[in-house]
Amino acid sequence: MFSVDVRSRLDSEVDQIDLxxxxxxxxxxxxDQNSLIASEGAQIxxxxxxxxxxxxxxxxxxxxxxxxxxxxxxxxxxVIVDLDEISxxxxxxxxxxxxxxxxSKVIDLPLREHFRFLKWWPVIRAIIDGRPVxxxxxxxxxxxxxxxxxxNRSFTQEDSDEEISWFLSQTGYLHLAEWWSHELMTExxxxxxxxxxxxxxxxxxxxxxxxxxGKDRCVRLQYFQNQSESVKRLLTDGQxxxxxxIPGDGHSISWNGSNDENAIEALVKxxxxxxxxxxxxWHKDCSLGxxxxxxxxxxxxxxxxxxxxxxxQLAVVAGSHRANLQPNFIHPYLDLPMIDLxxxxxxxxxxxxxxxxMSHPPVERERRVMYSSFVLPHKGKKxxxxxxxKVREEAYLKVSQVPAHNQDSVSYTHxxxxxxx
Length: 421
Prior knowledge:
Layout: H1 19-45, E1 50-54, E2 57-64, E3 67-72, E4 79-83, H2 85-92, H3 98-103, H4 111-129, H5 161-171, E5 173-176, H6 182-195, E6 206-211, E7 216-221, H7 229-235, H8 238-245, E8 265-269, E9 273-276, H9 291-294, E10 298-303, E11 314-317, E12 338-341, E13 348-352, E14 357-359, E15 367-374, H10 385-398, H11 404-407
Parallel strand pairs: 1-4
Antiparallel strand pairs: 1-2, 2-3, 5-13, 6-7, 6-9, 7-8, 8-15, 10-13, 10-15, 11-12, 11-14
Helix pairs in contact: 1-4
């Protein structure tokens, strides 16, 4: 098997940083140590001087030829970010990201400055973690024998786990064809119809969106195992557990059969969403934080109905899990291929938490899908999960997706933060 475990930090090592010591002593050392690789990334991304103010401390990171310069104060900054000490500590330790802080309104920058800050995130990680920003041409896609990898390949239950594992490790995604029966998907679709009335806006276990015809639609039914005996059986079925074992990293569903855990979510993708979020734009699942503590987990999408270009299929960026790049949008320089994943009823998609992906909005037919996750083994408390979960669950109330008729022309600005009037 081929590992997808890229964790580099332990929760047991997290502590509130000493602001003065980190900015005065640690940061200059990191900038000096990783200046070259960080400056290469800043040049690729077109980063402008970034100023950070925290309490009474402030500094500016300035890209220059072959180096990142560190300057006290923010007089030279093109964009200035004000942070409280907890948020700054989270940012440094990869607990939260610029996107999670913006979505939660901890920082509230004008849109242009927001994107300038987002562009810095891979460079900041290069400075702190020593991980170079992705350069065009660095990632290729090969089979184990060295031949070119077919990025549109799908697998069935007859294929070997080793083959499937290699493909996942190289691309960051899978398409598993005919994994579940049509009959089972029909039962689950009926359960979704019967369950909608059990949810209401603001209940803390569902997402809602308004469509252009004025309807308020429940688009995400959480804790769905409580609503469907068929789903409960699926979650403990050997076919589902086989997926968890594919990388050989000990992934598990982390569900003990309780009704209190959100083990699986059922999603409805309606046509014509104008307010709220149903079809998420380009992002990595770690875009809100904890990449170096949790990645890569696996997100499993079960096609209750099929998906294609007219009904809102999933798309991924092949190899993006192997690259230090913006986790929230597609930068124009990115050379990795975007792959659509059309599915039939009963098919399964898998993507890693570090894989850039998005959901096309349906334009002709609604789509139904269920999502569940497999996580890596972990001991002890996960730091910051409560903050990140709050950001995620309130997202549909604070931001709205780009309308379907505009999305085909959007890449660099695909993820926006329009506030509702």
